[in-house]
DNA sequence: CCAACCTTAATGTCAGACCTTTAAATGTCT
DNA sequence: AGACATTTAAAGGTCTGACATTAAGGTTGG
């Protein structure tokens, strides 16, 4: 683990990279303890604040955790699915909001990925997954729900569908695609009629999953995508007209 | 932007969270300049090193960039696809390697997602995407290629396939799934015969994409998944036997 | 034998200083 | 007047040294 003093990059960035590489390559295994900050400072020939900045960078990526007190220190962190979900969602959300990704593009990606899960979910879903889907459908059909609550329930429904595939890697990948769409979906005002249509489509998907009918679930998702795209187009058109006037 | 002095969490973590929330919520827009480190220290009533640690956390997530010199400072960063890819790949790779995700699970997720892209890619791929796929196939059929180079070419082939869908969000999501598999694939020793089989399957997929035949591309990917799973099972069985003996 | 205390090794935080970079402002020459 | 060189100030990057806080482990007294 050495650094290049001639590089233009920050020392803390270089040190973080050196340690990160050691972790990713497997040289530092899970729960291994790094040298203390003072020792790292000596090894890299920098001061302790610089080492600390490097460690904070790694902590931000959940690569390490720190513990105070005697026999404390920085330890290589086992990246949990929870943490990975969180990072995935944050990154995806920012990517969508900052790069003016069109609703159409994001929506297409989301449903394409979700359709990939549907056959697996239809095959393997537990009664629990199905119950969650039904519960969310019920919530969505209640009157007086705010648009945001409706969207949140929509996300919960789709997460249950994805989780039904019983593949944590798939759930992780989809978390970003589904959750990051929520801010975009929140721009849509759902009329009572469009809510009814969505609830109906959700019900069809849940029925298909219950019947272990993968193809029908895929078809249901395709219909839902078409409906969602229609809805968005309507909202965008209306907004454009009001701007013109 | 206020912090809770009674919290058990690090001050730098709290400050990072406060600023991150401001960015994600849109209160701080792209290219907005944060107050200087000294000003932030005053606002949050902490010292400059603490502020710096918070800023490094954000820099690690590519949420901000810093610039030295007069009129420099920390600016909200537009998250580029490149940076997002990188983070996605790092996180996915660690998630797979640290949680002893089975090859089977990861492989299933990867191909499920990739099949979701195939129809779109068959529809929209440019001549360039197709040329990349053909070039990688050619590289894969050359003798004397190391297993690692073969795997790298395999990844390049699949990325071209995914990019063919012309949906950057999809490419971003798939980057993690495809690249993170590489370390797992590297555990497999490819015999000449299995390489031939893979090249043949790749050729079939490329042919389907060239013919704008989505369903055939999906079928090709399914065959490739089955073959890859077979290969892995063989390797794992052989390894288990040698451990017993 | 167990509980309260102390020691100690870490991280967390602070204050102040100095170095380096950078762009804007100023000055000078043609 | 305009182009080029110089100065300057603002801001991040780094260092030093110190103190506060925490928690594990040993020690001591009941």
SSE layout:
The structure is a homodimer of 245-residue chains.
Chain A: H1 11-25, H2 37-44, H3 48-60, E1 64-67, E2 73-76, H4 81-98, H5 103-124, H6 127-140, H7 147-163, H8 168-179, H9 182-185, H10 192-210, H11 214-244
Helix pairs in contact in A: 1-3, 2-3, 4-8, 5-7, 5-8, 5-11, 6-7, 6-10, 7-8, 10-11
Chain A binds a DNA duplex (30 and 30 nucleotides) through residues 10-12, 36-38, 46-50, 52-53, 66-74.
Structure in words:
Two copies of one chain form a homodimer. By secondary structure, chain A is mostly helical. Chain A has two domains: 11-76, Orthogonal Bundle (Arc Repressor Mutant, subunit A); 81-244, Four Helix Bundle (Hemerythrin (Met), subunit A) (Up-down Bundle). The first copy, chain A, is 71% helix and 3% strand. The first copy, chain A, contains eleven helices and two strands; from the N terminus they run H-H-H-E-E-H-H-H-H-H-H-H-H. Chain A has a two-stranded antiparallel sheet. Chains A and B meet through helix 1, helix 3, helix 4, helix 5 and helix 8 of A and helix 1, helix 3, helix 4, helix 5 and helix 8 of B. Chain A binds a DNA duplex (30 and 30 nucleotides) through helix 3.
Helicity of chain A, as a percent range: over 70%
β-strand number of chain A: 2
Q: Report the CATH architecture of the largest domain in chain A.
A: Up-down Bundle
Outline type of chain A:
elongated
| Run of helices and strands of chain A | HHHEEHHHHHHHH
Classified by CATH, the class of the largest domain in chain A is Mainly Alpha
Fourth CATH level, the homologous superfamily of the largest domain in chain A: GntR ligand-binding domain-like
- Oligomer kind: homodimer
* Poorly predicted sequence stretches spanning 5 or more consecutive residues of chain A: none
Q: Give the count of helical stretches of chain A.
A: 11
């Amino acid at each position: 683990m050495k650094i290049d003093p001639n590089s233009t990059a920050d020392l803390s960035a270089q040190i973080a990279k050196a340690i990160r590489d050691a972790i990713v390559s497997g040289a530092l295994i899970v729960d291994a303890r790094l040298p203390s900050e003072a020792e790292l400072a000596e090894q890299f020939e920098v001061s302790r604040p610089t080492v600390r900045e490097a460690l904070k960078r790694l902590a931000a990526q959940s690569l390490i955790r720190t513990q105070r007190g005697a026999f404390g220190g920085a330890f290589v962190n086992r990246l949990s699915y929870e943490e990975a979900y969180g990072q995935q969602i944050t990154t995806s959300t920012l990517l969508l909001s900052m790069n003016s990704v069109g609703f159409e593009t994001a929506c297409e990606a989301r449903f394409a990925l979700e359709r990939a899960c549907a056959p697996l979910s239809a095959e393997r879903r537990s009664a629990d997954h199905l119950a969650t889907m039904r519960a969310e459908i019920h919530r969505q059909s209640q009157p007086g729900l705010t648009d945001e609550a409706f969207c949140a329930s929509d996300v919960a429904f789709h997460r249950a569908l994805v989780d039904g595939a019983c593949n944590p890697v798939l759930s992780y990948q989809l978390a970003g695609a589904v959750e990051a769409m929520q801010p975009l979906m929140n721009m849509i005002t759902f009329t009572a009629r469009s809510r009814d249509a969505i609830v109906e489509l959700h019900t069809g998907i849940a029925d298909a999953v219950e019947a272990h009918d993968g193809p029908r679930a895929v078809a249901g998702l395709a219909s839902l995508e078409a409906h969602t795209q229609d809805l968005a187009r309507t909202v965008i058109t209306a907004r454009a007209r009001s701007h013109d006037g």
